[in-house]
Specification:
With 309 residues, this protein is of the alpha+beta class. 36% of the residues lie in helices and 18% in strands. A hairpin with a 2-residue loop joins strand 1 and strand 2.
Amino acid sequence: MLFSCVLVKQMLYVPHMITGITYRGKTATAEDIVFINELIANNPDDSRWALSRKLCKEWNWVQLNGALRDMVCRGFMLKLHRAGYITLPPKKCNPVNPFVNRKKPVEVKIDQTSISLSLSEIKPFEIRQVRNTESEKLFNSLIEYHHYLGYCHPVGEQLKYIVFAGKKPIACFSWSSVPRHIGCRDRFIGWAKDVREKHLHYMAYNSRFLILPWVRISNLASCLLGRITRNLSSDWEKLYNHPIFFLETFVDTERFAGTCYKAANWQYLGNTTGRGKNNKTHKQTRSIKAVWGYPLSKNFREHLAGVIK
């Protein structure tokens, strides 16, 4: 009864201006608050999980492959709850969150015999997409134990590739959803904020690139970058029901010069600020990254603006 009374009071008072309530690109309106409060009041026995799925269905808040965006919706509702605009029911359980206190990938032992050959001698090699396959564990292990940044579970849409020479893995790539705002990239594309928010999913970010340390093959990195871009959009569409038209990556300027990206015809777009997305001090807190981009279509700007599909 007390819970219902709180909901009624909240439904009677909704401020005309809701400031600062934005989550993953979704900004709350007064109408949204009323709708969510009514949804909670009409489903008093529902869990937070059930409510978020119902809200996704009511708002048609889905990914392009048809999957509900209930994780994003749940985060949005929780932010409104903490700000006092809605009152969610008490938690009914505490499911394990795979993104909190993550366990390291199990190390997969492989042959680390040195490979020192020419590019022509190592061909033909196979570039295999391993997301949602048995080989994904091998990919996670290789990145965790041989990449200087280690493994970090990507957020959002993602693909993972292992390059094999015969049966031996020699390199790994991961691609994921891009950051919402990168100044030099957005200026290069020339899109407004509202257009960017609608079409950001048509881009992919090269979040990890690893040539295994015992593999020494001249020009392998730029060759693989050129090869993998040929099928990346079609692979993305198979899993997420939409193509991609532009690629980006960040290169730590304190460690690397971006030579392989330049050799593969990627374009240098500028540098990051080194402040991070949540830094409000306007001071550099991390290393500067060089931003490199690669269009997958001559008309990539029109695609990203939604002018052509």
